[in-house]
Amino acid sequence: RRMELDLRAAINAGTLEVHYQPLIEIGSGDVAGFEALVRWNHPERGNIPPIDFIPLAEETGLVVPLGVHVLTRACRDAAAWPGDTKVAVNLSTLQFRSGNLFEVVSDALNETGLEPKRLELEITESVLLEKSENVLATLHALRALGVRISMDDFGTGYSSLSYLRSFPFDKIKIDRSFVQGLGTNSDSQAIVRAIITLGRSLGITITAEGVETAADLEYLRSEGCHQGQGWLFAKAQPNEAASELLRENR
Ligand code: G
Ligand code: G
Ligand code: MN
Ligand code: NA
Fold it and tell me: Where are the transmembrane segments (predicted)?
């Protein structure tokens, strides 16, 4: 398949880009960190969005080398950011199956000099569905190193709550489907309020994804949600723009 060959070539050539979307501290408005999001600028087709190539990368196993590239780039970029600005990197289930994820992460930290506590790894429930001992052992080892572990897309799977008991997550990211329309939808409000309460009582940082309107933000603020991410604040942007945002923020 042509797409697969092109993607493999882009990974090998190191030409996949990484953009950064800010994570905003709702109380202060400060930039707490950024989520790293991969971007593929195809020589002929132009920008291909991740939803159009991450599934292919998963099917072909290319998400493993892609993940190494994104992680290393994100750690290198973040190491030059001021203070203790965090960087969040998405991990795929296949990266856990590859068997050397712990080494990949610790190598990226060592090579770039990024402090482990500044790295957040985002996993979805599908990772914990693996039910393998290796997954939990790897997560515990990464956490012991000082890396933070976030549950991404919280609320969309079938047993988000039981996963909270199987691993001590540092952060929950409320899926954007619950956040959109939060200013006006009372069902969404009830769900989001419950997740915030749950997170606060477990001592877990809560981030709302997909914050698009001032009304969404106002609701999150009134309920004490810790962080927000979404187009209301900024879209994902190249490292130069992210670094500039940090300079303005100081
Ligand atoms: O960046 P958004 O712009 O469109 O990302 C779309 C989807 O692709 C999201 O579900 C996101 O989690 C996923 N994604 C983006 N970057 C990465 C990455 O580096 N690795 C993995 N595994 N998924 C990613
Ligand atoms: O890892 P995750 O699936 O959460 O990836 C983040 C995805 O959410 C990316 O595709 C990104 O472009 C998208 N996104 C970020 N902010 C917003 C937003 O405010 N609204 C919507 N609809 N999508 C967003
Ligand atoms: Mn994510
Ligand atoms: Na998400």
Answer: none
CATH of the structural domain 2-174+242-249, one choice from 3.40.50.300, 1.50.10.10, 3.20.20.450, 3.30.470.30: 3.20.20.450
19 lines ligand 2 (CB under 6 A): no
In tens, the pLDDT along 233-246 reads 999 999 999 999 99
C-alpha distances (whole Å) from 57 to each of 21, 88, 147, 199 are 22, 20, 25, 33
CA-nearest residue, atom 4 of ligand 1: 50
Could you say which residues of the chain have pLDDT below 70? none
**Per-residue confidence (pLDDT) for residue 195, from 0 to 100:** 95
**ipTM of model over 0.90:** yes
Smallest Cα–Cα separation from 26: which of 231, 207, 162? 207
Q: Is the CB of 216 under 6 A from ligand 2?
A: no
Cβ-count burial 36-51 (b if 16+ within 10 Å, e if not): bbbbbeeeeeeebeee
